[in-house]
Amino acid sequence: MASLVIPSSGNHGQTGMEKDQITMVMVPFPVQGHFNQFLHLSRLVSSYHIPIHYVGFNTEISQVKARLHGWDLATATNYIHFQEFPTPSSYMAPAPPDCSNNSSKTISKLIASVLDAFFTLREPVSAFIKKLSSTSPRVIVIYDSMMASTVQDKLAKKLFLLSGAHIPDGLPTLRSTFTPEFIEFMRLQHSCNKFSSGNLYDTCKVLEGPYLETLAKFSRLLGIRKQWAVGPFNPVTISGENDSKVRHKCLEWLDKQVQNSVILVSFGTTGYLSMEQIKELAIGLEKSKQKFIWVVRDLLSGGEGEVRIPEGYEERVKERRIIVKDWAPQLEILAHSSIGGFMSHCGWNSCMESITMGVPIATWPMRFDQPKNAVFVTEVLKIGVSREALGCP
């Protein structure tokens, strides 16, 4: 989610803006999935030769650069500029132990760490926008809707909300999927969107036309005049091997596999499983006799900060698997012709990447927007199945 502020320096007209008069600032929420989304959006905007200032913590920006996939940052370096701020020590702390799927205390601690760091961004971001608006004819600030309080200072002429729209009936409730701390945090951000005059959504009418029409009617009742479905942000085609990068080992392995023969198993950067769940998943993948890529890097569990694959497991399945213990280029994997399915936590980025690459999803949602996204995938689009339907506990 994000919003947009247009600070004005001097007496500039509201019409006839030329692209060389515009400078944009991107302010994503400081977690990996939101960083990726905003960098993809920066790519789209920069294709119009509009300069982008992408802001965030230095450690997170380094990570998002390293994990960029699907396009080459070098092709946009003349227009995308990174403004880095020091990362608070609280945000650099390791994740707490016992990250089981149902550990509400653990998730609350993780969220508290992110939110504590979040509040330190308001002053430096505000100062940066003020400085930029004093020298640029027109500054447009696109910010995550969960960053409203960061950019709420009196700079705004207009604001726009950027989010994912996916609202079918029969969805899990907010309180069943978000912690009380996060609900309160979202309430605070909503209260700061006082200048909002329109909504942007990381989706498209092909996927959610009826829901966007319903949302437009509802928005007008709230006095919101405009909305745009501008997604997907991620590239929808992968141009092939990038000569400036070394291909990931899993892509080399996929080149040797038969079309639609491999399943990707990945649960994003917030998908924590218990050791028992990891063990059962490992057994299920082994018994399936199915070729697979399993990304396990972020599945912290067992109280030791690392995933413990059952002893001897990797040797037993070595002929038909790749187990990735570091980061993997998910978009490029999904775009590969050998991939025939995706077991996913159903974060919206993962859903959009899988949908745009034409890969069906086996849903394993955990928290936040994921249960709603899973219902959308299985019950509305009907391009996937739930893990319950597959007989998983």
Q: In order across it, which strands form the biggest sheet?
A: 4-3-2-5-1-6-7-8
Structural class, judged by helices and strands? alpha/beta
How confident is the prediction overall: mean pLDDT? 77
* Count of DSSP-assigned helices: 14
Number of strands: 14
Order of helices and strands: EEHEHEHHHEEHHEHEHEHEHEHEHEHE
Rg estimate, integer Å: 21 Å
> Biggest sheet, open or closed, and with what strands and sense?
8 strands, mixed
Q: Report the helical percentage.
A: 25-40%
Any idea what the shape is? Answer: globular
Whole-Å distance between the termini? 32 Å
% residues in beta strands: 15-25%
Low-confidence stretches: 1-17, 92-103, 154-161, 163-167, 300-305
